[in-house]
Design a protein that fits this description.
This protein is α/β, with parallel strands linked by helices. 40% of the residues lie in helices and 13% in strands. An eleven-stranded mixed beta sheet has the order 1-8-7-6-5-4-3-2-9-10-11. Helix 5 links the parallel strand 4 and strand 5.
């Protein structure tokens, strides 16, 4: 996750992180990703069931019950495990998490255990009353998926009328005093609406927008159908940076983030080298502390059945089940070869990634994307849009032409 607005335009400095101490104890939540001790943010798929049929869904969810999901008591036990292990953030996802009848009760239980609770939803089940219940449950942030405007979003989700319901959900959350933002996944079906999304964010007073790069998992595994070419991705990232700077220069404070492609970090750094070299040096320190891709390190997943995964896209590989062992025991067990590799992956990387000068701020990007593309976990990530010249230049302070 790259905080484009604060890194590219804001005043976030390495000294600010050091002032709070990098152990994360007194650190504001927006600085936690730069902390030294990294307990994982956990994505919990509370249910696989969903009322939509999105083209990029990594769980390939359908509108039907799924067997063997964690019971209420098992879910509370999981929350206790996460709290005991020191997990800082619990992200409730799905499927559609609000399809599960006790999701907000579990959210309240988790927030009572000291976890920061975040909800990732399609928004279609959020009425004004549900938004107030979300607030009461202690949910600190709601991310609503909106993958286009009007019919573009409806076609993307496979259900007519979804756009209006999702947009209304954002309004309901704002009225209830819940921090809410928009989630947009960049694909071949909607890339032409990025500027429209910025306009919507401005017109509707939405404070946060996250642009997600496509990960080749679930329905998106056949990437030829939905994925953008690297050159197209690069153009869109340029546009996102440009629009973010435009908002900043007009005095509009918006959180703009990009997610799931760690090539964005060196690309932002190279842009800053041209515009503000002193700022670029400060930002590079922050990017080094963040460390790039954190699958198996500072991001993890528990699915609806209790299986633990290195991240939410790696559903085909289970590290263990919380019904049998605690989450903490599973997470710290490096006898699993994949987990051991993810925690120290640089010597294992192949191809372009192996010789990249930006490994300290990218960490080899998404291994799931590499595996989906060529069948090898440690191969180069095909989502990287940096040129060979950019990744092999002699010094990180050089500016690529």
């Amino acid at each position: 996750m790259l905080d484009v607005a604060r890194l590219l335009c804001g005043d976030l400095k390495a000294s600010e992180v050091l002032r709070h101490g990098r152990n994360g104890g007194s650190m504001p939540r927006e600085l936690l990703r730069f902390g030294q001790i990294k307990k994982p943010v956990v994505v919990w798929n509370v249910s696989r069931r969903c009322n939509l049929h999105c083209l990029h869904c990594y769980t390939e969810s359908k509108d039907r019950p799924y067997p063997n999901e964690l019971s209420h008591s098992e879910a509370e036990d999981l929350i206790g495990q996460l709290s005991d292990f020191g997990v800082p953030v619990l992200l409730l996802s799905g499927g559609e998490p609000l399809y599960r009848s006790d999701t907000l009760e579990l959210a309240s239980y988790a927030s009572g255990k000291g976890l920061r609770v975040v909800l990732s939803t399609n928004g279609t089940l959020i009425s004004a009353e549900v938004a107030r219940d979300i607030k009461k449950a202690g949910v600190s942030y709601v991310g609503v998926s909106l993958d286009g405007l009007g019919q573009v979003h409806d076609r993307f989700c496979g259900v007519k009328g979804t756009f209006q319901k999702s947009l209304a959900a954002i309004g309901h959350c704002r009225e209830a005093g819940v921090k809410v933002g928009l989630r947009f996944t960049l694909t071949r079906y909607n890339y032409h609406q990025v500027e429209d999304i910025f306009q919507l964010v401005e017109e509707r007073g939405i404070d946060r927008v996250c642009f997600y790069h496509l990960v080749y998992a679930g329905r998106a595994k056949n990437r030829d159908r939905v994925a953008l070419a690297p050159a197209e991705t690069r153009q869109l990232v340029d546009l996102i940076f440009q629009k973010t700077q435009d908002l900043y220069h007009r005095g509009l404070e918006k959180e703009v983030l990009t997610v799931d492609n760690h090539a964005d970090a060196p690309y932002l750094h190279m842009r800053l080298l041209k515009e503000d070299p002193v700022r670029a040096e400060e930002v590079y320190k922050l990017l080094q502390w963040n460390g790039g891709n954190n699958s198996g390190i500072a991001i993890g997943c528990v699915d609806e059945r209790g299986d633990v995964h290195p991240d939410q896209f790696w559903r085909g590989y289970s590290l263990g089940n919380v019904r049998d062992r605690s989450f903490g025991d599973i997470w710290m067990d490096t006898s699993d070869p994949l987990m051991a590799g993810l925690k120290d992956r640089k010597p294992l990387l192949e191809g372009r990634c192996s010789g990249c000068r930006f490994l300290d701020i990218c960490n080899g990007n998404f291994r799931v994307r590499a595996e989906a593309a060529v069948g090898r976990v440690w191969a180069s990530d095909p989502g990287c849009y940096l040129t060979d010249q950019e990744i092999t230049a002699a010094s990180p302070t050089e500016v690529a032409p």
